[in-house]
Amino acid sequence: MLLPLSSAHTMGSRFRGVGIRILGFYPGVRYDLRAVGFDEPPENYCTIAFFSAMVWSVLVTIVVTMIMLVAGGTLPLPVKILVPFLTSFIMTFLVLIVHLAYPKIISGGISAKEDRELIFAMRDMLIQISSGVPFFNVVENIGNSNYEYLSDEFKDITNKVKAGSPLLDEIESMAIRTQSEYLKKTSWQLVTAIRTGANLTQTLKSIVKVLVDYQFSLSKSFNAELNFIILVYLMTAAVLPTIGTTVLVIFSVFGMLGITSEVFLGIIFLSFFGQMGIIAYVNSKRPNIFA
User: Fold this and answer.
1) 3-state per-residue secondary structure call for 90-136
2) Residue 202: C-alpha distances to residues 125, 209, 259, 272 (Å)
3) What pLDDT does 71 receive?
4) How far, in whole angstroms, is CA 194 from its chain's centroid?
5) For the chain, where are the alpha helices, taking DSSP H only?
6) Among 194, 211, 228, where does a domain finish?
7) Which of 193, 211, 229 is the last residue of a domain?
8) 3-state secondary structure of 199
């Protein structure tokens, strides 16, 4: 985003109508912004997202117009006018969609890290509860530990409790605002166990077991998918380039589709970028459990 988030309050108050209309088309952004800790109203973010998209659109349109003036000498005048206009409209729409989707991408990354650290935090909580440490002190200790975003959530709870808010109400608020599915379930289980007077140690043991099973299921599903990905990678890296080159050599004997150095380099580059794409896909799908 070309406009700083600090300008959201000023621009959002001046052009509030723009943000409200955009928010009506994409209402889910309010929950994504809440998950990433954006304090301003969601319509303010939609406003600066729109104006940032407009700035991007102007910059790209200027470049396209200059290209059309320099390299489009033989094109008719209506085409020279229509292409920059369509470029401006398409860029505004695409960049605005990216800006509105970006908080969801960020919150998804945060929830993934919270899921990864949750099992260690719950084991820590289980040990402390089993040792007789009061529940509030356990929450405070986890907030002061190094569990990344999860520690930030628990630290926020302890700060609000010290300011006078009930502990269980703050845990419920954390369950509502977080995008982590397992942090939601864990929070509700803790609140239910405390309010019903259940054994908190047994509850934590069951939570830890569920989290461990979840991590094992992630590893198994990734391993099953990886077998097929390896097959696709081998075809992209070796089989298809070899078969393609062989077919072109055979066709060149009959005077068809002869293989040249340019064609051969093109096959190499296609294979290279295909391999890079598969590697990037594997890296994005790899469950970051302990890293």
Assistant:
1) HHHHHHHHHHHHHHHHHHHHHHHHHHHHHHHHHHHHHHHHHCCCCHH
2) 12, 11, 70, 53
3) 62
4) 34
5) 8-14, 16-25, 29-35, 42-71, 77-130, 135-143, 149-162, 167-177, 181-196, 200-234, 240-253, 261-285
6) 211
7) 211
8) coil
CB 118 within 8 A of CB 183: yes
Q: What does the H/E/C string look like for 215-251? A: HHHHHHHHHHHHHHHHHHHHHHHHHHHHHHHHHHHHH
> Does 53 lie in the same domain as 102?
yes
Q: How far apart are CA 120 and CA 289, in angstroms?
A: 11
With tokens 């700060």, the residue in question is 159
* pLDDT, average across residues 167-177: 86
Closest by alpha carbon to 134, among 206, 200, 202, 208?
A: 200
The domain tally of the chain equals 3
Question: Does 48 lie in the same domain as 137?
Answer: no
Under DSSP, is residue 34 helix (H, G, I), strand (E, B) or coil? Answer: helix
- What's the pLDDT at 288? 62
Render pLDDT for 73-111 as a digit per residue (tens, 0 to 9).
666 767 677 777 888 888 888 888 888 888 887 877 777
| Model pLDDT for residues 20-73, shown as the tens digit of each residue | 888 888 777 877 777 777 777 788 888 888 888 888 888 888 887 777 777 656
| 3-state class (DSSP) for residue 146 | coil
- Domain assignment of residue 242, given as a range: 216-285
Asked whether residue 194 carries a pLDDT value surpassing 80, the answer given is yes
Closest CA to 29 of 15, 43, 16, 18: 43
Looking at the structure, tell me whether residues 181 and 253 fall in a common domain.
Answer: no
Nearest to 51 by CA among 105, 118, 2: 2
Which of these, 149, 77, 67, 84, lies nearest to 114 by C-alpha position? 149
pTM over cut 0.70: no
